[in-house]
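FW: tagging you since you asked about this chain on Friday. Here's the raw sequence from the shared folder, copied in full. Didn't touch anything.
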Amino acid sequence: MTLLANPFRKTALALATAAAASLTFSVQAAEVEVLHWWTSGGEARAANVLKELMEAEGYGWEDFAVAGGGGETAMTVLKSRAMSGNPPSAAQIKGPEIQEWGELGLLGELDEVAEAEGWDELLPPTVADVMRHNGSYVAVPVNVHRVNWLWANPQVLAAAGVEMPTTLDELFAAGEAIREAGYIPLAHGGQAWQDATVFESVLLASGGTEFYQQALVELDPEALGSERMIEALETFKRLRELMDADMSGRDWNIATSMVIEGSAGMQLMGDWAKGEFTAAGLTAGEEYLCAAAPGTQDAFTFNIDSLAMFRVEGEEREAQQALARLVLEPTFQEAFNLAKGSIPARPDLDMSGFDVCAQQSMDDFQRTAEEGGLVPSMAHGMAVRADVQGAIFDVVTNYFNSRDMAAEEAARRMVNAAQAAL
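HL: got it, structure written out here
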């Protein structure tokens, strides 16, 4: 009996060891490495929800977080990894950069999961198009930021006897009243990307969505050098009169704090500013106000964070497909966007748990998606390549801070910058 049992036990032990090794290999292989720059407190907690969802389905998650607000450092690391032939499973990439990575042949297709989950029906076409390369899904959106927002301190507005402005003329009139009441009318940080953020909202208000598309997305020379562009530049320059002299180099969140503390009345900034108001314990619609940037009520300038998927094989691809599916499921969409200040990428979710600003943003997102008012943000990397964006930034900020440059000259430089890039 003992003689027979020993070989059995050895065989059983061998099978168990092999099974354990196979299971260990399976768990290790079915893992995703995700590069991102969601490193602030709320963002990190929101990203952790996705990790927990992956782990609940039996997949591993290797967090590859690279600090740096705009993702420049993360992109440098990603390029280094990709050039060495070792890219992560997924990376936070957005806008035209998705197409650039796709052209290199490094992105993997998500069409199978997209079809199974009905992404074409869930996502507005404008958003879905950003996620595709050569007709195939290669990325999945995690949120939608609205860039064309105006934020205000209601106590400052009341002290000046003004309402939230809805047109550019009303913005200038309200600004003068706020200054006369002893406050800074418009909080701003003198950095190139902040100048560009304000500029694109002024252009949208002055020229409308079709002109915005022609100028800042299609880079049409006629639009860039037109009288309408010159008028928009002149209006943009006038906004300096509503800002304080100490704005140079100021970070955006410091400008938001000026509105929170009541030293300034208003700020033109994307909905990430809402995180500052929330952190200060203020209630949307009561202790701070939000509205579409004056003159842009019929438009929605979007900035989308997304995860692009790199080419992988075997069980890592299986885990990658699960990651793509989970990103668009309600659990993650709600948790992430409540923390981020943005709205879910899919418009069909229940927004009752979100504040009034987010609810308005979602309403406007759906409406403009149907009416054709969704436009990609040039200032936030959604409209043009990084080199073109940089060239436009240079023109906009140099003009804004110049005492001598005429709007006609700035328009001419925009045309030259666009033609050099094409």
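FW: Confidence is low (pLDDT under 50) at residues 1-29.
HL: agreed, and Residues 146-302+370-419 form a domain with the D-Maltodextrin-Binding Protein; domain 2 fold (CATH 3.40.190.10).
FW: great, closing this out.
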